[in-house]
Amino acid sequence: MTSSQDPSNQTPEYLSTIEVAQMLGLAVRSVQLMVDRGELEAWRTSGGHRRIVHESVMRWLASRQRDPMGNSSQTSHTHAGTKPKECKILLIEDSAHFQNLVALLIKQHFPNASLHLASDGISGLTKFGQIQPDFLLVDILLPGIDGAALISTLKSDPQFARCKLIIVTGLNKGQLLPYEFALKGLPVIHKTNLVNELVPLLNTQIVQHLST
């Protein structure tokens, strides 16, 4: 329900409509309409700007019954009736918003996957060596070491050969040009399209992983 008062006595995390639009891969107007319909919980500042409760965004995502490919969330991870083996996914991302979003998508669509998190490139390299993940999701802009340098380092590691890599970024095509040397041949998902593109891409790669 939309409220006109600032709930100052509460301490949830609030997001702007632009931030929610980027998280969900939707137009800002679509997010505004979702607030107006009561699908997202929000309040308005004294200047009339919407502030959306982060938890309500996560609840909305969790309530989705079907994935972007039109398959049931309970079956999107299966392959020809084969019981999926557990796979390990490492996400190297410094944004708590996107860590939470990826965690929710993985939990909802890939219950047999274990997700591990690193908030910077240095800890990401350490966890990669410790975990030996099957899938690696990496942001390009990271504190400590940027994603391109991280990817180049991993490519020189023989253990990297068995790991599938997906790039997640907020940069546009022009901004990605300096990183082309590291991104060649790798799938790249823009953060505004994360909800729509990550699940089907991971689903395809997990099927391939199961068949090897």
UniProtKB/TrEMBL annotation:
SMART domains: REC (SM00448). CDD domains: REC. GO terms for molecular function: DNA binding. Keywords: DNA-binding, Phosphoprotein. The modification 4-aspartylphosphate is found at residue 139. InterPro entries: Bact_response_regulator, CheY-like_superfamily, DNA-bd_dom_put_sf, HTH_17, Sig_transdc_resp-reg_receiver, SinI_DNA-bd. Pfam families: HTH_17, Response_reg. It comes from the Bacteria. One of its GO terms (biological process) is phosphorelay signal transduction system. Residues 88-206 form the Response regulatory domain. NCBIfam families: excise (TIGR01764). This is Excisionase family DNA-binding protein. It comes from Sheuella amnicola.
